[in-house]
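Input sequence (290 aa), recorded before submission:
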Amino acid sequence: MAHLITVLFGLAGVCLASTASSSDFYGHHVRRGSCPPGFHHVQGRCYSLGDEYVTWQGCWDSCKDNKAEMASFETMEEHQALSQFMLANAKSAFYWVGGVMLDDGSWRWVSGAPLAPSTMQWYHSPAGSLFRQSVIFRLEDFRMKPTHGSDVNVCLCEMAKSSKCPAKYEEVNGRCLRFREVESTWEEARDWCHAINGDLAVIPSLKDHDVMAGRMLAMGKETGPYWVGARAQVKGYYQWVTGDPVLHMTWKDNFPQSSDGCAQMDPWSGFSTTDASCSSTAYSICQLRA
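Predicted structure, token format:
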């Protein structure tokens, strides 16, 4: 699956060329210079069209190299505005965008936001698709269709929204998370998080869990599992490192019955949460202290 995700974000430098004008493609007022060179203003956002054919992962990497993200459009208005711009400027029939399918069959943008299977945005319903990445294509009014991440298409990037997080951290649903691909016990992982002014990540709601899962999938974080900040206090009772009880969690096997376990997010189980011996080793997710 990591291979599939790698395919989504491309090698092409995919930024829309920006001029120093004070209005965007549709005449919306935009602060002069708000888009960097290579990006275009479209309805107040900055987009970049690539010109090389790359895999999905190649597109992801290329966008990141340009401090951008794979393009998304979370409203019909955004989709229509971008479609009009591409109609006038796109030279390729197919462009990668940042949609990805989770193991449960739901679709999300690489930001973690839900991607509804709207018939207005999709060429045909993606339900039941065997392909895990989405592509926007020039024909059929720029509607999307799912395809294999190892295919090659041109990349469509958008300027990443300004992040409050320091280097090496990912902003996920308003929180700054750092993914550590070094195996350690739960206690060792927590000590490491403390050393960088953080703690193991807390997942306070099912919505937070889904957003984090979508973001991890898009980032290719599929080789875990990853420790998170919950530990059993007594049999059947888990508590976050904040002291709050674990009330909302997507457990793999209902609610765990361990009295000495620690919680992990497991990519191999569709990013559901599993409990494991705290002395076993895994990767970890740290959350920066506010």
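Checked by second reader. The longest strand covers residues 175-184.
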